[in-house]
Specification:
Length: 429
């Protein structure tokens, strides 16, 4: 047997060079050598095995068997990863925060992979049985997730019957255990249209309920009914309608109904009240449409969030209005980092007013606070220095002010540290 040559990283070729070399070598490599390499590589870890199966599935004309194997290996791998933490949780009654978060992520991903419906019955039943071993014990905060996994493992009526019988053995029932949302999720996945609609139509309250039903009709190919439901939701639903409105807008755009779509975009902009939505609305309006909406935009903008109004006035070159907002709302605006960039643009034309704005926004400079507050004040103090030194040329005023602040906070090491990070020469003052 030939001696294996170990390549050091510095000897490696670039990616294009490797591809060219492999393109020459692989056609001459015996099939059994490649098969041995792939099997050996895939056997080293579940991740490599799943990666190989998914790659093969994407490149074959009959991917169903390979997809099933990949899904099953992923499901079993996720369960194997989650079970040690589950066991510790139920044995000792708790986990560290990091371990608990990791466990919830694994169980949530497991439920999502099962929802894809690719795994075979044997694998699904194995997971259901494993889950119920823990559901028979006291709840340590995971029962809801485990019940979701058991339902996600159902893809047909036989699976649902099996789950129902298992619940009955515990003195429970399908109807008592699973609420409308879970059962609708199952019936949609299993293709039982009538049972899904029976529950869904009795539970239409919030915007997401109407969106769920509209998407169901869309996926069934019935756009007319989907739009009826969505429009009804815009009129009747409770809650945030942003996503539902987007659904309607996209369809109106696709069918050329621009006037209605533009009106909904106007509502969309003000439901979000973010400056980026204003820019998006302005960009999507023709000049003629903007002329019809500009006054309405200005009127509604008066009730938008302060940072959105600040950016709106800056965008329109209305610096006086922008300054007023900065002075009115002070430090709380500066938690949005973009506000610093907007404020700096005002310094050239309004240095004195911006100096006043920054000083007022810092509030009490001699109070004890957390590092996050110190860091924010440090950025504002750096802005004060920029205005005094670079805009107004008042170096002496800056030095006197900075020394006073530094001396008054001599025992606040965290403040000194944060100020020194962003203010040139702070430690030498």
């Amino acid at each position: 047997m030939r001696k294996r040559v170990e390549l050091r990283v510095k000897d490696a070729h670039s990616v294009p060079e490797r591809e060219q070399l492999l393109a020459k070598i692989l056609p001459e490599t015996p099939k059994e050598v490649l098969e041995h390499f792939l099997i050996e590589t895939a056997s080293r870890s579940s991740e490599r095995y799943v990666e190989l199966l998914e790659y093969i599935s994407a490149g074959t004309s009959r991917p169903s068997v390979v997809e099933r194997l990949a899904a099953e290996e992923k499901i079993l791998s996720l369960w194997r990863s989650a079970e040690p933490s589950l066991s510790d949780l139920y044995e000792y009654g708790g986990l560290s925060q990091d371990d608990e978060e990791e466990l919830y992520d694994l169980l949530d991903e497991l439920s999502n992979v099962l929802d894809e419906g690719l795994a075979g019955r044997e694998c699904r039943r194995e997971i259901t049985d494993n889950v119920f071993e823990y559901l028979e014990k006291d709840d340590y905060g995971t029962h809801e997730l485990l019940y979701d996994i058991a339902l996600s493992a159902c893809t047909d009526e036989d699976d649902l019957d099996y789950l129902s019988r298992t619940l009955e053995e515990q003195g429970d029932s399908l109807e008592e255990r699973y609420g409308p949302a879970s059962m609708m999720k199952y019936y949609k996945k299993s293709g039982d249209r009538e049972k899904y609609l029976a529950i869904r139509l009795e539970n239409l309250h919030r915007a997401e309920d109407y969106l769920d039903l509209a998407e169901f009709h869309r996926d069934s190919g019935d756009w007319e009914e989907a739009m009826k439901v969505a429009e009804a939701g815009l009129e009747k639903a409770d809650g945030n309608k942003y996503t539902l409105r987007s659904f309607v807008i996209d369809r109106l755009d696709a069918t050329g109904k621009r006037a209605r779509a533009t009106e909904l975009r106007f509502d969309q902009f003000f439901s979000a009240a973010f400056f980026k939505e204003y820019l998006k609305f302005r960009r999507e309006c023709s000049d003629e449409e903007w002329a019809a909406y500009e006054e309405r935009v200005a009127e509604r903008m008066k009730s938008a969030y302060p940072d959105a109004r600040l950016f709106y006035h800056m965008h329109r070159g209305e610096s006086s209005d922008a300054l007023t907002i900065l002075l009115q709302h002070g430090r709380k605006l500066y938690w949005n980092s973009d506000v610093f960039a907007a404020a700096e643009k005002l310094e050239a034309d309004h240095p004195e007013r911006m100096y006043d704005c920054y000083v007022r926004s810092m509030g009490n400079l001699y109070e004890t606070a957390g590092r996050d507050v110190y860091a924010l004040k440090a950025r504002l103090m750096a802005a004060v220095r920029r205005v005094l030194v670079e805009r107004l040329g008042e170096d002496a005023k800056w030095t006197a002010f900075a020394r006073e602040v530094k001396k008054g906070n001599s025992r606040r090491a965290a403040l000194q540290d944060e100020f020194a990070k962003v203010i040139p020469g702070w430690r030498k003052l």
